[in-house]
């Protein structure tokens, strides 16, 4: 017996149930994106794969949106904006407008420098693709320590390692990474003479802020594998509001007992420097990997210009506990840290999975296209000559 026949026999009207089950669909616009994954039955190049993320859904759509937003902030120039008539003579100059780009602040937590994202961040700084950096103490010291000794992966990349056993063996664990304690001993031997010299120069009138100390460390390390080396070389400021929250802080603490005059580091100078740089920006954007102090410090600097124009967050934080780390861009809009109508996205994912793909599809893609064009033009010039 059919359902309808059974319902009729029981005297039940099924029309209301059918209406609930089969609500008529509204026709979606022709431009609506259809969900469709990549077809691996045909050869795929990386760019085709990345393009397909826009149609996969869930966090893949977030990845695609992150690529879109970064490309917009990366490519923006003041010359893209119409003249209003209120510009100064310099601001109206076409050459000035063509070279004035978006002020891009990159934020990341220390664990990401411990990971292989360090090399990707170094690429961005080496080629001046970001304007400034804000990170945590580990984001400073781990970059320097890697110049003195390697970081290793645990066996099979397992997070299940005995802390007590590692402690006996002088091995420190960061997730599924291992840092030999000897690396920190090497770091202490390297950094102490520099701290000595900073104190000497302080006595001669030098004033130190976290970013100035970091710049000095970048110059002293003299190692092209270092993010801080390239930041110092390219005059890209690196801000670290919690500079003492790590091994470097331990070194500064111990050093303070060895010196008649302890090293003084002025954090007020840096907050003035960071906030003022954001206030002056014609256009401002940020890419923040992880959360915590670097995320909040960057966003707070944009408050003084009524918010940033672009933002990309990549982290695994959730907002149910009210944490700033887990907060979505819309919360920052409520504070005036991002502008209403700004281009924003939060990708809920581990940055080590997502950020290499994002950079491959944006800065790296543009970088290698320019390299290829340069070679082609150079070859053409040589041929014509």
Automatic annotation (TrEMBL):
Transmembrane intervals: none
Record keyword Transferase present: yes
Catalyzed reaction equations: [eIF5A protein]-L-lysine + spermidine = [eIF5A protein]-deoxyhypusine + propane-1,3-diamine
Gene Ontology cellular-component annotations: mitochondrion
Cell wall biogenesis/degradation found in the keyword field: no
EC primary class: transferase
Primary localisation category: mitochondrion
Entries under SUPFAM superfamilies matching the protein: DHS-like NAD/FAD-binding domain
Alphabetized UniProt keyword annotations: NAD, Transferase
UniProt xrefs under InterPro entries: Deoxyhypusine_synthase, Deoxyhypusine_synthase_sf, DHS-like_NAD/FAD-binding_dom
This protein's pathway: Protein modification; eIF5A hypusination
EC number: 2.5.1.46
Subcellular location: Mitochondrion
One GO MF term: deoxyhypusine synthase activity
Function: Catalyzes the NAD-dependent oxidative cleavage of spermidine and the subsequent transfer of the butylamine moiety of spermidine to the epsilon-amino group of a specific lysine residue of the eIF-5A precursor protein to form the intermediate deoxyhypusine residue.
PANTHER family attached to this UniProt entry: DEOXYHYPUSINE SYNTHASE
Family: Belongs to the deoxyhypusine synthase family.
Protein known as: deoxyhypusine synthase
Native organism: Mixia osmundae (strain CBS 9802 / IAM 14324 / JCM 22182 / KY 12970)
């Amino acid at each position: 017996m059919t359902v309808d026949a059974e319902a009729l026999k029981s005297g039940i009207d099924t029309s209301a149930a059918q209406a609930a089950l089969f609500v008529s669909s509204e026709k979606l616009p022709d431009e609506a994106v259809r969900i469709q994954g990549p077809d691996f039955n045909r050869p795929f190049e990386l760019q085709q794969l990345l393009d397909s993320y826009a149609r996969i859904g869930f966090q893949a759509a977030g990845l695609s949106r992150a690529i879109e937003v970064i490309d917009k902030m990366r490519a923006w120039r003041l010359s893209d904006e119409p003249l209003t008539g209120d510009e100064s003579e310099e601001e109206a100059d076409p050459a000035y407008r063509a070279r004035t780009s978006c002020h891009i602040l990159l934020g990341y937590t220390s664990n990401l420098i411990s990971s292989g994202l360090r090399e990707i961040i170094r690429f961005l700084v080496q080629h001046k693709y970001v304007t400034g950096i804000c990170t945590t103490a580990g984001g400073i010291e781990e970059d320097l320590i890697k110049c003195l000794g390697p970081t290793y992966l645990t066996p099979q990349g397992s997070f299940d390692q005995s802390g007590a056993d590692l402690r006996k063996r002088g091995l420190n664990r960061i997730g599924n990474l291992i840092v030999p304690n000897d690396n920190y001993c090497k770091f202490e031997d390297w950094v102490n003479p520099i701290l000595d010299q900073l104190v000497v120069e302080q006595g001669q009138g030098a004033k130190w802020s976290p970013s100035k100390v970091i710049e000095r460390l970048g110059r002293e390390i003299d190692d092209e594998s270092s993010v801080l080396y390239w930041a110092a070389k390219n005059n890209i400021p690196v801000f670290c509001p919690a500079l003492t929250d790590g091994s470097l802080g331990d070194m500064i603490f111990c050093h303070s007992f060895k010196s008649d005059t302890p090293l003084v580091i002025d954090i007020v100078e840096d907050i003035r420097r960071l906030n003022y740089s954001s206030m002056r920006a014609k256009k401002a954007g940020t890419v923040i990997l992880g959360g915590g102090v670097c995320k909040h410090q960057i966003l707070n600097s944009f408050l003084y210009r009524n918010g940033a124009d672009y933002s990309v967050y990549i982290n695994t934080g959730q907002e149910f506990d009210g944490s700033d780390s887990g907060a979505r861009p819309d919360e920052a809009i409520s504070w005036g840290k991002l502008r209403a109508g700004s281009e924003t996205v939060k990708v809920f994912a581990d940055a080590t999975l997502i950020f290499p793909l994002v950079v491959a599809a944006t800065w790296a893609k543009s970088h290698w296209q320019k390299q290829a064009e340069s070679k082609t033009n150079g070859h053409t010039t040589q041929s014509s000559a």
